[in-house]
Amino acid sequence: MKLTPVMQKFVLHWGEMGSRWGVNRTVAQIHALLYLAKEPLTAEDITETLGVARSNVSTSLRELQSWGLVKVVHILGDRRDHFESMKDVWDIFLVIAEQRKRRELDPTLTTLRECVLESAADRATDPEIKARIGDTLEFLEQLTGWYEQMKHLDHGTLVKLLALGAKIQSLLGKKG
Q: What is the pTM of this model?
């Protein structure tokens, strides 16, 4: 696959963005490449286009598959695996949000719930500290509850909700 300067800039930036979010740079670059690709690509195509080691491509593809962002497709007459990414940016966002929730927020919620339960009998921890832990738990539970509601909305409704932005404040009768 031949990358135009714009495509190359996009792929490189996606890799930088991924590394800032804790995702391996090559994983993010491969995802960007597959997102832009008009046709599914083989691991060899990816290796050649990005100039990275074949082993790194294989490992990265497995990670992208584990996230549900990339899938294997087969081409009639070609025995090799081909890979493609989701193309709808909303689908990608929702998959990433769900995976991050499952991998990061869910374990944190479990730990916070344990801390709140254990703190009830804990006389050594200052009540103010216990309250902070409880506030954090409440915040994350509200956030994940909101997320659970939002993830079931259709894309059009989500776009309208985002477009409302600060207008929601006036709908609720609040002054800025």
A: 0.84
